[in-house]
Amino acid sequence: MDNLLAAAAAALMLTALWKMWRARLTMNRLERMLDEAIEGRFSERRFDESRLSRAESRLAHYLSASAISAGHVAEEKAKLQSLIADISHQTKTPLSNILLYTQLLAEMELSGEGQNCVAALEGQTKKLQSLLDALVKTSRLETGILTLRPVSGPLLPMLEEAVGQFLPSAAGKGISLTLTPTDAVAVFDPKWTAEAVCNLLDNAVKYTPAGGKISVRAVRYEMFCRVDVADTGPGVPEAEQPKIFQRFYRSDAAREAEGVGVGLYLARQIAEGQGGYLKVSSKPGHGAVFSLCLPTG
After folding, report:
1. Which strand (E) or helix (H) includes residue 253?
2. pLDDT digit string (tens) for the chain, length 297 residues
3. Within 10 Å of residue 202's Cβ, how many Cβ atoms?
4. In angstroms, rounded to a whole number, what is the distance separating the alpha carbons of residues 209 and 200?
5. Which of 281, 245, 242 is nearest to 266 (CA)?
6. Burial bucket for residue 56 (CB in 10 Å: 0-12, 13-18, 19+)
7. Cβ-count burial of 5 within 10 angstroms (0-12 exposed, 13-18 middle, 19+ buried)?
8. How many CA atoms lie within 13 A of 173 on its CB side?
9. Phi, psi torsion values for 182, nearest 5 degrees
10. Residue 241: phi, psi to the nearest 5?
């Protein structure tokens, strides 16, 4: 009896060990399949009727379909990149020529009505030029044609360059534009972050009345750095604050000002594209503060 029990126990132990060995082989094979799939070199190795073989076959078909789909996406992306480049190239020369001829017309002796028409033509051409530039930049970002490359660095040089571009236009309106010196460091793409800050400054100069103030400063925190562009303009009603970051949105109060409603949308896309965000704090009649938050590490 004891011998029978010992034999049964040994048989059970051997069966358990055999099942563990089979399970380990199966797990190893699955891990190999997944590793090869991740590395892009997966291929079917067994062609039997086992469940694992069928899983290999299904995985191979899935990866093949994914590769074809990825190829189509890459092809469409290349076509879109070419289209955007063509639009950008083909529209530059005609718009530049229109502006040139408009300036030549303005130098001629025209009636008052003629001068008004020339001024309107020049304004609309510049608006169209600005719209096309913004759309090309936005499309390149959205499609991944242009990739943001954030690096760790000081914010001050980028902010000084951006503010310097708007000092003449601010002075022309009698607006005080100041930048608070800072030693803040963040992780950001200098070129595209400057583009976002310039869009914020452009809006601030447009909507701040003569004699107003615009200030730029950077505030450091442990996990992120915040760049504030504050103005003394009319402010943004609370109901409109979520809408102003939408593409082409223009509030009724902003209809008379220049612009196409893309600047804030593009600035938010740039912020989010490098792990940051853009927000606004404002009350009507008390100006607005646009805050561009960037990671520090």
Report:
1. none
2. 666 667 777 777 777 777 787 777 767 776 776 677 666 665 655 555 566 666 666 766 676 666 666 666 667 666 666 666 666 667 777 778 888 888 888 888 878 888 888 888 887 887 777 777 777 776 666 666 667 889 999 999 999 999 999 999 999 999 999 999 999 999 999 999 999 999 999 999 999 999 999 999 999 998 999 999 999 999 988 888 888 888 767 666 555 556 556 788 889 989 998 999 999 999 888 899 999 999 997
3. 20
4. 16
5. 245
6. buried
7. exposed
8. 20
9. -150, 150
10. -60, -40
Per DSSP, the three-state class of 42 is coil
Eight-class DSSP state of 255: T
What is the Cα–Cα distance from 28 to 33, expressed in whole angstroms?
9
Asked if residues 203 and 233 have their Cβ atoms less than 8 Å apart, the reply is no
Residues making up the chain, counted from first to last: 297
In whole angstroms, give the CA distance from residue 86 to residue 71: 23
| Token representation of residue 106 | 């303005």
